[in-house]
Design brief:
About 65% of the residues lie in helices and about 0% in strands. It is mostly helical and about 220 residues long.
């Protein structure tokens, strides 16, 4: 491993290379735990979106939406249309709607809550969160709020996928699990908004907080 990669672990562990490698391994374990949780969340999210839009927009709403004259066939939704059509092309000749849903990435589903895509699908996607808090004059629990939450989750997902650590204060070689714990709470919150019992769903899979505690106690 490069000096740059290991160096921050050594700095965080007061110069102890042995302790640094222990922290490195625990970060890998934490990343593994969290990626599993995010993967379950991603599947739950995309399935909830798909089931809702199948009812409101009809069968094959993705392919139809990206076709000429479809809801995504405009300059504001250009990238959404391209993502759908690229995935359809990739799947051919094995295309079906279910395979297409699975092919599209987390970023695609997140962007369905951005203003243009949210409007294009009929401004109804917040219905997949039946337990979402009621908006107030102080905070609006609208599509932008959800979009920003999903952006944070997507960012840490990509960070893990690119083998970047999640056991430090961002940008500093200081051991701290607050960053990871914050994103974990975001995922659990959105599970709860969807009326999904995350404890039951993640039974036997979620040891995230245990690993966080191990890192904090080093």
């Amino acid at each position: 491993m490069s000096i740059a990669r290991v160096g921050r672990y050594v700095s965080a562990c007061g110069g102890s290379s042995k302790k640094a490698m222990t922290l490195y391994r625990k970060n890998l374990k934490l990343s593994q735990e969290f990626f599993t949780i995010i993967s379950c969340f991603e599947i739950a999210l995309r399935n909830a979106i798909d089931q809702h839009l199948l009812q409101t927009l009809g069968i094959d709403w993705l392919r139809n939406g990206a076709s000429a004259g479809g809801i995504f066939d405009n300059s504001n939704c250009r990238l959404t249309k391209e993502n759908i059509n690229d995935s359809i092309h990739k799947l051919n000749p094995y295309y079906n709607h279910t395979k297409l849903v699975a092919e599209l990435g987390f970023g695609f589903w997140r962007y369905l809550f951005s203003r243009n895509q949210f409007n294009a699908t009929g401004k109804t996607l917040l219905r997949i969160f039946p337990a979402k808090p009621i908006s107030s004059s102080i905070i609006q629990y609208n599509n932008i709020y959800v979009f920003n939450h999903l952006k944070e989750i997507n960012n840490i997902r990509n960070r893990i996928a690119h083998h970047e650590p999640i056991c430090f204060i961002p940008g500093l070689p200081i051991k701290d699990t607050s960053y990871a714990r914050h994103h974990y709470r975001l995922v659990l919150e959105l599970f709860q908004w969807m009326n999904i019992d995350e404890t039951d769903l993640l039974y036997g899979l979620d040891h995230f907080l245990d690993v966080c505690d191990e890192i904090d106690q080093m």
